[in-house]
């Protein structure tokens, strides 16, 4: 079974301005097609045996699958967290109109 040519990547950042900066840089590098920053969300997790509640911005990146390695490298080098969340989903970009839009964006280099 072949994998999809399109991917979605989820990551998070506590600092919204930094999230905007990262998305802008990845767009300029041509490694993503677009990025969405969801409003601040609550994050609950265990840290050193204690329940921790933080807030952060959920980020959704749309890209072609062949750009994943560059996206992961970018996030790992720039992200302030020791182990940043990077979740990759193979997807199909859906409607013919949206696929044409993405294809055009890729052809023009973003």
Automatic annotation (TrEMBL):
Pfam families per the UniProt record, alphabetical: CutA1
Biological process according to GO: response to metal ion
InterPro entries: Ion_tolerance_CutA (IPR004323), N-reg_PII-like_a/b (IPR011322), N-reg_PII/ATP_PRibTrfase_C (IPR015867)
An annotated Gene Ontology molecular function: copper ion binding
Family: Belongs to the CutA family.
Entry protein name: Divalent ion tolerance protein
């Amino acid at each position: 079974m072949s994998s999809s040519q399109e991917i979605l990547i989820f990551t998070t950042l506590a600092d919204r301005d930094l999230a905007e900066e990262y998305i802008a840089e990845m767009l300029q590098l041509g490694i993503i097609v677009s990025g969405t920053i969801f409003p601040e969300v609550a994050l609950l997790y265990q840290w050193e045996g204690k329940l921790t509640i933080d807030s952060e911005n959920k980020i959704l990146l749309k890209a072609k699958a062949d750009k994943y390695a560059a996206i992961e490298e970018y996030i790992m080098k720039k992200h302030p967290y020791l182990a940043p969340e990077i979740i990759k989903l193979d997807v199909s970009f859906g409607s013919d109109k949206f696929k044409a839009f993405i294809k055009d964006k890729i052809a023009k280099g973003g």
